[in-house]
């Protein structure tokens, strides 16, 4: 028994170190230069990540409008078309990121064998993908490990810190670690079971708040809602800030898709579902049978319903209801107005940037041709504006001559929505807006919460 254990360990160790060394020399790109790490950081203060979920047709993307492509955890470097996304990204002078799942469960120990294996497989993955960013998806861990303790979380922080150190050993380039986190820390509010300060200081360069996590983490009532309900978003960010994650490391995950919810009861526009009995992390805690729909799917399949959509001003998102035979459905999605409000938030709160989820949403087969066409496809989302404004020194008045010129050109080139956003950002400084309630200096929300915890 002992012998077989140790020989298995030996094999694991050999695989861990031999495989990456053998593979790291290989470059899957036609032009070997495309395997070089990204060097020029043209937007050091703002990031626009675009996640892909499986598509490999990325060459027509508008590469100037974002800073990094993040490939999914199931991509395999040995699949030529998947590997080509890295070559195309570097060829376009953008950062390439590859994802890994934090799939350790149970009580964590940063120096045990399980953690060691996870660590070397993550490093191996970064090396073989020649990735500038390693995106660690922490959501599965926090979703499945409902009983994780403060001790687990500090071990998790140690594992991530070790990961960052090993990634940056033996390279002259800085490999960044991006941590994909749920919308609020698991230790939010009254529960005092975790400590993010180590993660924040030592382990993660970025915190990507996963835009799809709002319905599945926490919450006792299964009620369909906006993919990103703004009040929850503010609350989650405020909690992260209280756990030492600064706003300028947060990247807001913004969905380009929506969800079609099946309601088990429905009335007054409120669609509810039963709770799942088994805590299955892949389906969430609510039995909504929720179906992923891209904006293109909605335009193609629900044109009439889309025309009759309503807008929820609190969540800042559009929705519509429809009946499929006797079954009631509610569809929540994002449009130009709801996305604009999120991009504006990123600027106003000085977050590090946005992560578009997912680039695939606008290249699905059912996407109408008008959305796929160059320019139009990428302009209605207008995320590129973040990079435009990032060029300007922070304190300058955005409403300058060049901005006006930019507005003109932007409108002409990229269409109405982008123009509207440009104008919005340009006039933002002139219209005196109240500070967000939970702004660090303002402290409004903290006081508010303290005084009236039951609200
Ligand atoms: C963690 O693992 C190491 C090595 O297996 C062991 O020596 C140590 O006691 C463990 N720590 C805890 C808290 O279990
Ligand atoms: C979490 O803790 C609760 C209460 O102690 C227990 O009933 C449940 O089985 C635990 N869940 C897991 C996955 O360990
Ligand atoms: C890292 O570099 C050192 C010295 O150049 C070398 O001895 C070591 O094998 C390298 N490690 C890896 C994992 O490449
Ligand atoms: C709805 O009813 C029609 C006709 O009875 C049937 O063809 C269709 O499959 C049904 N749709 C669903 C989703 O059950």
Automatic annotation (TrEMBL):
Please state the span of the N-terminal signal peptide per the UniProt entry.
Answer: 1-24
Q: Which PANTHER family match?
A: DI-N-ACETYLCHITOBIASE
Query: What keywords tag this UniProt record?
Result: Glycosidase, Hydrolase, Membrane, Signal, Transmembrane, Transmembrane helix
Has keyword Membrane? yes
Give every GH18 domain span.
110-356
**Superkingdom, taxonomy of origin:** Eukaryota
Which InterPro entries does the entry mention?
Answer: Chitinase_insertion_sf, GH, GH18_Domain-Containing, Glyco_hydro18_cat
Q: Which SUPFAM superfamilies match?
A: (Trans)glycosidases
- Where does the chain cross the membrane? 404-426
Organism, as annotated? Aplysia californica
What is this protein called in UniProt?
Di-N-acetylchitobiase
Q: Which Pfam families match?
A: Glyco_hydro_18
